Amino acid sequence: MTKSFYVEIRKANIGDVQPIYETIFESFEPYKRYYTRDAYEMTVISHTGFKKHILDDENNIYIQSMAVKPKYQGKGIGMKILKEIDKIARKKEYKTMSLECFYPLKKAISLYKKCGFKRTGKTRDYYGIKIFEMLKEVRER
């Protein structure tokens, strides 16, 4: 029998910094060997970095880091998060949503594609690893 659970998706606040950090850390730890030290440290953002992102909303939709704790992966939570971000983008009338990804994150890439993200062809060096951009057009429903 599958265990049911409740998921709440909302804008983060300062009190969420520690659990956000823990989630990102746990989610990216299995992939640490694929990253350079600097790339990993920039991906698993420090507590100070999270506070800055929460306080400095630049009024655009760029997904910098997204993670679901490993024990909850594969249960549709990532899809729910992306759908909520999509709702926000539509409400604010943005034209696109973008993110950058890394080849070893195959499950994440698959999820992004299911949610309508497509590779743009843009790549860049990210502290010694090659990352690529994915973009989704935001359309009115």
Q: How would you describe this structure to a colleague?
A:
- The protein has a four-stranded mixed beta sheet with strand order 1-2-4-3, with helices on one face.
- It has one domain (14-137): Aminopeptidase (3-Layer(aba) Sandwich).
- The protein has helices spanning 17-28, 37-43, 47-55, 77-91, 106-114, and strands at 62-63, 96-102, 118-126, 129-137.
- The mean pLDDT is 86.
- The protein is built from five helices and four strands; from the N terminus they run H-H-H-E-H-E-H-E-E.
- It has 141 residues and is α+β, with helices and mostly antiparallel strands.
- The protein is 37% helix and 19% strand.
Summarize this entry quickly:
It contains 5 helices and 4 strands. With 141 residues, the chain is of the alpha+beta class. The protein has a single domain, classed as Aminopeptidase.
H/E element sequence: HHHEHEHEE
CATH fold annotation: Aminopeptidase
Please, how many domains? 1
Q: What would the principal axes of the Cα set say about the shape?
A: globular
What is the CATH architecture annotation?
Answer: 3-Layer(aba) Sandwich
The largest β sheet comes out as:
4 strands, mixed
Distance between the termini: 36 Å
| Count of DSSP-assigned helices | 5
Structural class: alpha+beta
Mean pLDDT: 86
Strand line-up of the largest beta sheet? 1-2-4-3
CATH hierarchy, class: Alpha Beta
CATH superfamily (homologous) name:
Gcn5-related N-acetyltransferase (GNAT)
User: Roughly what percent helix?
Assistant: 25-40%
Proportion of β residues? 15-25%
Radius of gyration: 15 Å
